Amino acid sequence: MIAFVRDFKKFTSKEIQKNIIATEPNVLKLFEMGNGRFEFWEKTNMPKMIKGEYYLIQKTNYIHANPVRKQYVKNPEDWVWSSANTEGKINVDSVA
């Protein structure tokens, strides 16, 4: 599992950097660590196995609260991409 996460982070970091350079080059400085290095992932961001209902509910609530904490929306169900929004629909054709 650790090798997969390492490889995933390495691959996605390179892709994120390429995308930022191509679309929003001024944003790249937000991730600069010095010596021409950039950090897109927290070092402590490692997945944990969900082994019980309590842990699953706790993590789901945390994810639902993220857009509220960032003040993107007032309520978790207001975030269209959230599973808390049972009424929302995403039109895949318009996401490009």
Could you explain how this protein is built, in words?
This protein is mostly helical. It folds into 2 domains: 1-47; 48-87, no CATH class. The protein has helices at residues 2-23, 53-69, and strands at 32-34, 37-38. Strands 1-2 form a two-stranded antiparallel sheet. Strand 1 (32-34) and strand 2 (37-38) form a beta hairpin. The mean pLDDT is 84.
Task: Provide the descriptors you would attach to this structure in a database record.
96 residues, single chain, 2 domains, 2 strands, mainly alpha, 2 helices, two-stranded antiparallel ribbon
What's the SSE blueprint?
Layout: H1 2-23, E1 32-34, E2 37-38, H2 53-69
Antiparallel strand pairs: 1-2
User: What is the terminal separation in angstroms?
Assistant: 31 Å
Name the structural class: mainly alpha
Major beta sheet, specifics? 2 strands, antiparallel
**Overall geometry:** extended
Percent of residues in β-strands: 5-15%
Helix content: 40-55%
Radius of gyration: 17 Å
Number of strands: 2
**How many distinct helices?**
2
Q: What is the domain tally?
A: 2
Low-confidence stretches: none
Mean pLDDT: 84
**Multimeric state:** single chain
Strand sequence of the main sheet, in spatial order? Answer: 1-2
Order of helices and strands: HEEH
